[in-house]
Every structure is written in structure tokens, then in C-alpha cells.
């Protein structure tokens, strides 16, 4: 019975994500309560993802790992430095929106990227590899970026947060890989779909906690919320469309999972290093960013359709 329910949820996963967005707006009290449990829920999500994919498919080959490392450097180092260089050449100030874009470009993948690839019918292993390697590389890729942002916080805080996240990722993934390797070496299709159903539930619950700033922002200034919401869609979907066009032109087999990550980044990591006066407006952007993120499997399905 439970397996049947989880399979049904997996089959209609995109609606589960939308339900999470709606709950985050409609239930601000629940959103506030769940916000404190986000780290534990993220760890559970990573555990389920690693269990679903398995260690063999994740590692694949040395060539895949090398390609993934190169992709992480482009996404997290080359892109934010190019953006900041462009601002300097044009003589533009580092506005709150420009800072938000910089942090998005410099951040590693969100933890749910592999799950979005699953919902879109693509191989999630490249996304999980990029999540792990990108997070491991963040202490190095963040140094040049923050060197161009001397007025914002201390780099040590970012490195500490990145290392803490890496420990969580490796621990959760390690437990997931171990359970899969020794407990379920050959996961059946039904077991895989049931696991997908559990990840949809985890994603839907997590997003409720991440939406805690949306309802107060709407009640305070709907126009400002609309601005940040539009900016979130442009940044997220814009990066996904650009990355997918480039990677598809190069016939990259990992075009879809990489494009998903190009637009969906865990930039909240950097909040620990920035002063409150810089992060206050970005909290609204963080909440708005969940909309294009969780709507990716719905709105970009035709673009990423594997058929």
C-alpha cells in the first residue's frame, strides 16, 4: 500500500513541488516552524538521492569526474568573475540585484538538482557528481570572487559554511551509498519509483521552510516582491537556457543535469559572510528563487524532454 502511494507521488512529482510552493505561501506559521529543520531535511534528501542512484552510477569513470571538475570551475569561478568584470568595465555599481546575481553564479548546486533531473526523465548521476565536486571546490573558487568583493564580510565564514555543507553532503551520501551497496545492490524499478516518491515529499516539505520570507514581503510591499520574483525567474531560467544551448551544441551527454545546476545554485551559503544590511533584501530574493527552481520540472519540461 505504502509503495503504491509513493509510486503515485513519484508519477505526479511536479504537482507535489507546486503544492509545496503553495503551502509555503498559504501557511506562514508552518513555514517558520520548518525553517529550523532545513539542514536535517536537506541531509535526508541527499541520503535518498544517493541511495536511489548508487555509488557505481555516481562515480562512473575518471573521465566523468575530470569533466565534472572542469564544469564546476566554469560555473562557479569563470562566470562570476566575468560578470563582475563586466560590471567594472561598464562602470556599474554593485547593486543588491547585481550582488544577488554574483552570489548565484559563484555558488555550487542546490541539493535537489539530481531530483529535478529524475523528474524530467534524465540521468541524475552527473548532477550528484557536480553537487559533490562543486561544493568541495567552493573553498577555492570563492577566494577570487570574494577578492573582488572586499566590502562584504569575511571569506573565512564562507569557507567554514562550505566545509560544513561538504561534511553533510559526504556523510548523507556515504550512508545512502552504503545502504544501496550492501542492502539493495539491485534496486527494482518499483523500489526506485518509491524512492522518487519519498524525495518528492522531502522537496515539497523543504520548500515550505524556504518560503518563510514571502508572505511577509507580500503584505509589506507587493511591488518589491514582484520585482524580485521577476529577477529570480530571469536569472534562474536565463542561466538554464544559456547553458543548455551551449552544451547541446557541443553534444554533451550531461547537458540537461548541468543546465539545471547552472540556474539552480545554493547561494544561501554566502549569507553567513555578508553583513545584515546586504542580506536583508536578498532574503526576499532567496524566497522568490524557490519559484523558478521548483517550477523547473514543469515549465522547462518541453525543453528538456528526452523523447
Q: Which CATH architecture? A: Up-down Bundle
Mean of residue pLDDT values = 86
Report the major sheet: none
Give me the count of strands.
0
For the termini, the CA-CA separation is 31 Å
Percent of residues in helices comes to: over 70%
Keywords:
307 residues, transmembrane, transmembrane helix, mainly alpha, 0% strand, Na+/H+ antiporter like fold, globular, Na+/solute_symporter_sf
Task: Describe the overall structure.
There is one protein chain. The protein has helices at residues 2-11, 13-26, 28-35, 38-53, 55-59, 62-90, 96-106, 113-119, 125-147, 155-183, 189-210, 214-220, 222-249, 255-263, 276-299, 301-304. It is built from 16 helices and no strands. The longest helix is centred in the first third of the chain and has 29 residues, at 62-90. By secondary structure, it is mostly helical. The chain has one domain (2-304): Na+/H+ antiporter like fold (Up-down Bundle), CATH 1.20.1530. Helix 8 (113-119) packs across helix 14. InterPro entries: Na+/solute_symporter_sf. This is Bile acid:sodium symporter. Keywords: Membrane, Transmembrane, Transmembrane helix.
Summarize the structure.
Keywords: Membrane, Transmembrane, Transmembrane helix. By secondary structure, the protein is an all-alpha fold. It has 16 helices and no strands.
Element layout with pairings:
Layout: H1 2-11, H2 13-26, H3 28-35, H4 38-53, H5 55-59, H6 62-90, H7 96-106, H8 113-119, H9 125-147, H10 155-183, H11 189-210, H12 214-220, H13 222-249, H14 255-263, H15 276-299, H16 301-304
Helix pairs in contact: 1-11, 2-11, 2-15, 3-11, 4-10, 4-11, 6-7, 6-9, 8-14, 9-10, 9-14, 12-13, 13-14, 13-15
